[in-house]
Amino acid sequence: MMERRKFMQTSGLGLIAGIFMPSILLESCKKSTMNMNAFKPVTVKDGLFNTLLPNPTFTNPSDINSLVAQNTTAEIINGKTTSVLGYHNGILGPMIKANNGDAISIAFSNQLSEETNVHWHGLLIPQIMDGHPDQVVTSGGSYNYQFTINQRAGLYWYHPHPEMKTARQAYMGLASFFIVNDTEESALNLPSGDYEIPLVIQDKRFYGDYSLNYSPDMIDVMNGYFGQYILVNGLFSPYKEIETKWYRIRILNGSTARVYNLALSNGASFYVIGSDGGLLSTPESISSLLLAPGERVDLLIDFTSYSVDTEIFLQSNIFSGASIQGLDQFKILKFKVTKQTTESFTLPSMLSTISTIPISSNLTTRTWKLGGMGMNSSSGGMGGMNSGGSNMQMNHTINNKTYNSSEILATVQAGSTEIWEIDNSMMNEIHPIHIHGVQFQVVSRTGGRGQLIASEKGWKDTVLLMPDEKVKLIMTFPQHKGKFLIHCHNLEHEDSGMMVNFEIV
Amino acid sequence: MKKILNVLVILVISNMTFSQTKWKIGVNYSFGFSTLYGNSVNNNSSNGTNLTLDYSLKTSLGTGFKIERKISDKLNLVGSISYIQKGASFDASNSSTKPSFKLNYIDFNLGIKRYFSSNENWFAGLNIVESTLLSSYRMDIYGGSNLSKDIKKMDYGFNLNLGRDFKTKRDDFIQINLFFTQGFNQLFQGAISKNGIQGKNMIGGIQLGYLIGK
Q1: What sign for the dihedral angle of Cα A146, A150, A153, A157?
Q2: For residues B107 and B131, is the Cβ–Cβ distance under 8 A?
Q3: What's the complex ipTM?
Q4: Whole-angstrom Cα distance, residue A364 to residue A340?
């Protein structure tokens, strides 16, 4: 049955491609290379997991004199140098750790040859600081990001958000953590210091000279751009030395398109304690968890019962119902037990209080339909493809609209509560939908998986929709007024138009 | 480089202004294929990656000025300055994106040309070549990244050519030759060089020239 399902999925994609992309089919047939495997993501390559993942170094925002988007180099693959983009020397950027209430002032400088900006993903901050594509910093320019943190503890992050350039810039290395602490979380005495490990998982392709290869073709724009090499905190195939203790593993999916079904290689269960917007109300024991691009998850893993020299992998398991994704299992990070230690931590039964936003019949409900696959002939940009001399471009849409900076599709009142229904029943694609400027709760999921997963029982800013799924979200808009975005965090989809404005007034 | 250009321009102007005896000057255009000679490596790194860098041909265009001076019945001194595209395509596994090293040079050639007979048609030439890098990019069909930090600015090599001069009714010359140029330098430095990648310029093609003089 599984094989038949896969066949139907890929056949469906092939049919769509045949309708909408005659030029690519013609071109491919000429080369006699077109087959259904063309739609399957590149196969992930296993490494030797012999590169030590260093302990994280957190940076207090007051210690950041400047954040500089720049061309730099990094040692992603052991002993090899790769040109990347970074917010400091090396791939990614400083792991910022702040407290609720902190006043943030970060002087940002753009030393790239193109415009960029910084979006503080998940933070509830004024619109002019949010990194909207309207507010880009030109090459050589600078901008002072100033805001006060006024929200609960959580694993947030930052990355570029210029129109049609987000995917490439994030892929080339511009991203990092912005962790917020608060007194509620501190009181729990969760594992910290060397026992709190933030992990950003990304997938990359390399050219033979070890340069990063970001070159999405039309099929990549349709499905997302998948890499063969899985990176953790900018390192390929690393291992982490651990003790026989509890660890707090805080994971960001920083890939442009790949969804991970996180699990431990020995099948052991672990606890999910937090999501995009901070702690859940109670820990929930699970053995695997889907994490889509842009989403974060906070895990507690109990390594106390393992003996020294035990090796366990964090891996991505096969999963279904996700179109062409989830077809392979692959390893991500090796945990190697190197030290026997006494542990005093006990898992708290309660973590936080999540006040459920009440649903009433008089709430405004809006529907956002996800679609796309249309093509136009505009030049350049994501999805551009030379075919027969014309530059075709693939589009993804929300409510049949591609991104238009000046177009606002919804106006909402600050302080009001609304229900937003997101409908992914039109296409056989995966869409992790991110809403700027607000944290929401997932009320329900219908179609597809038909239920919420453990990490969706708290505050969220990004929610995954598999094909045929609809989710119902409820949110109360903060007082920060202005133009914000709802978009797909499959960054190839975002850059091909799957992004629209809404305005808080 | 500017000095060399100035000298050549002066030579050309003076030659056009004054006696053209024993001198030929003109322009040349070339079309050919370039690649890099070096390690088509199978880069097994210590943590399990297995990347392969395979160089293949990319097209090359060139244009410039040429000057020749007769020094004996069959022997000419030859100098030229040309803009020429070099580099290589690479990574057949990523061929759909057509990755390439695109290197643009100014080549200064100085050498001798020997006719096979005194009627001055078929000839062979040997030049030493000094190449100054103008620009360097890693390109694919979606754009390029600047490699100015990763490619050495200068290269040296030799040029072999075999061709024929055709005298026109106006006593000018149309010159056609096949050429091959090999660089001596390992081009890469910086990040690419650290990764064990090597490459020397190699280019071949056909050159068409039009020269005036006697």
Answers
A1: negative
A2: yes
A3: 0.74
A4: 56
Domain A51-145+161-178 has CATH 2.60.40.420: yes
Nearest by CB: A208 against B46, B52, B146: B52
Whether A207 and chain B come into contact, CB under 8 Å, resolves to yes
Q: How far apart are CA B68 and CA B125, in angstroms?
A: 12
Q: Fold identical between A51-145+161-178 and A364-504?
A: yes
A452/A444 Cα distance (integer angstroms):
7
Of B49, B96, B191, the CB nearest to A229: B49
Q: How far off is chain A from B165, nearest CA to CA, in Å?
A: 39
The residues that bridge with B149 in the sheet, in sequence order, are none
| Contact of B147 with B191, CB cutoff 8 Å | no
Chain A with chain B: Cβ pairs closer than 8 A: 96
The distance of B196 to chain A (nearest Cα, Å) reads 9
- Residues near B106 by beta carbon (within 8 Å), at least 6 away in sequence: B1, B81, B82, B83, B84, B131, B132, B134
Contact B94 A81 (CB under 8 A): no
Domain boundaries, chain B: 2-213
Where are the domains positioned within chain A? 2-39, 51-145+161-178, 364-504
| CB A483 within 8 Å of CB A406 | no
Which residues 357-396 of A have a C-beta within 8 angstroms of B? 384, 386
Report the CATH number of the A364-504 domain.
2.60.40.420
Contacts of A164 in chain B (CB under 8 A): none
A70 touches chain B (CB under 8 A): no
Q: How far is A166 from chain B (nearest CA, A)?
A: 15
Does A194 contact chain B (CB < 8 Å)? no
Separation in Å, CA of B198 to nearest CA in chain A: 10
Cβ contacts of B190 on chain A, cutoff 8 Å:
81
Reading chain A (505 residues) residue by residue, the pLDDT tens digits are: 334 444 444 444 444 444 444 444 333 333 333 344 556 778 898 899 999 999 989 999 988 878 999 999 999 998 888 989 999 989 999 999 999 999 999 999 999 989 999 999 999 999 999 999 999 999 999 999 999 999 999 999 999 999 999 999 999 999 999 999 999 999 999 999 999 999 999 999 988 888 888 888 888 899 999 999 999 999 999 999 999 999 999 999 999 999 999 999 999 999 999 999 999 999 999 999 999 999 999 999 999 999 999 999 999 999 999 888 999 999 999 999 999 999 999 999 999 999 999 999 899 999 999 997 665 544 444 444 333 333 446 789 999 999 999 999 999 999 999 999 999 999 889 999 999 999 999 999 999 999 999 999 999 999 999 999 999 999 999 999 999 999 999 999 999 999 999 999 9
CATH 3.10.310.30 fits B2-213, yes or no: no
